[in-house]
Amino acid sequence: MEKIFETNEKPIANGSVPSSAVASMPFAPTVESDVPSQKPQPPADVLMESHPAPFGRPREFLGNRFVYAVISQRAYGLSIGINLNPDKACNFKCAYCEVNRDVPGRESKVDLGALRAELEDLLDLTFQGRLREIPYFHSVPDELLVLKEVALSGDGEPTLSQQFSEIVREVVHVRSGGRFPFFKLVLITNTTGLDLPQVQKGLKFLTSEDEIWAKLDAGSQEYLERVNGAGMSLDKMMANILLVSKQRPIVIQSLFPLLNGQEPPVEEIERYVDRLKDLKKCGAQISLVQVYSAHRPAHLPKCGHLRLRTLSRIARRVRMGARLRAEVF
Ligand code: SF4
Q: Hey, what domains does the chain have and what are their CATH numbers?
């Protein structure tokens, strides 16, 4: 899952990277000078070339069933992920999706006891500074091994999980148990189930320091179907985004892929900006728009990475047109 002004901020309050760490980072800011950015803009290509392993997503290297770890560009470092969809359930078919649904999910349900044990073990390794014992993290710079978030995400759409609220409650219990320093939770969603009662119940467990990152890749129904193969209307997505963004500030995640060698049409970007303006007009609190492209190999070969220049142009339109903060990743 970026735009007019550029943000990630409120959200990224505790995801900020100290300037001393930034100075030694393997990447330099890349966003154009007119882009008001408070964070370094990590160029995906540089990151991936310098540290290929952590930026792929072979989540299985820990041997876990439900908890994984990645170095996330949008989190600015280590993200521990909770897979709410071991069954790979999703109502979208995004052109850039990394999940291969030709291979069925390994489990139909999340075992809460196993999830808790895996999460506590990984948090132990993280906070004891022992992640580097894992070969996967051998060459990762120290500053990227600082935990930035625990993400409610996975191989499908988290808000479609029947266990959504009990999983959130379990993770919040781990956090509040006093065994670990506070960590931020981030729900990464395509917006589908944000209005469902069990999801609304689960969201009540989140604090103001937690975040919701909601997908919005299109400004028209036609483009939504092309890029996301969405099993829902754009109007419904907008309604769900509005619902939660009136309850708390959210981050909009917008991924613009190169589709069959084609960039997103200029008119489509304008319609997308119009959607953001509509959300604002209706009272949505949007702290940041993340603009990025497909970085990892997609399951479908028609999908490619948009050049940074185009992404920066889109972000500028978000800033100028919708007067929102936008960051390019
Ligand atoms: S919403 Fe996420 S999990 Fe679902 S198809 Fe799109 S990228 Fe894949």
A: 9-328 (3.20.20.70)
